[in-house]
Structure formats: C-alpha cells, structure tokens
Amino acid sequence: MQTLAEKQAVLERTVREKTAVERELDKLYAESAGSKADEQAQSTSSVIEELSRRIQTAERERDDALTKRDSVVNQIVRSDLL
Description:
Structural class: mainly alpha
C-alpha cells in the first residue's frame, strides 16, 4: 500500500503532467488559429483580386459601349446632315 507521501508525490506529478499537456494544447490551438487566420487572409485576398478583375472587365466593357454609342451618334448626325 502507498503511503501518504507517495500518494502526494503521485498527485503532484499528475498535476504537473496535466498542466504541461494543457500548455501544449493551448500552444497547438494558438498555432491552429494563426494558420486559420492566414488561410482566411489568403482567401480574402483572392476574393479581392477576383473582384478587382471583374471591375476592370466591367469598366473596359463600359468604355467599349460608350465608344460604340458615340460612333453611332456621330453616324446619325452625319446622315441627318446629308
């Protein structure tokens, strides 16, 4: 049978091991949260890039449409003058 001192030593060692495991778990959790934040930042960056590309495409199409409209208006004005 274990003495009171032996039981106390086992209890103290168990508490130290539990504390060490909790610290390691906290460390792993923090690293995981950091990598998730990095992944989210990369995802956000790719979404922003995609939206920027779509905006540029829309602006280019708008400019083309305005140019065509001006061309048609000029043709109408010329045909009215003739």
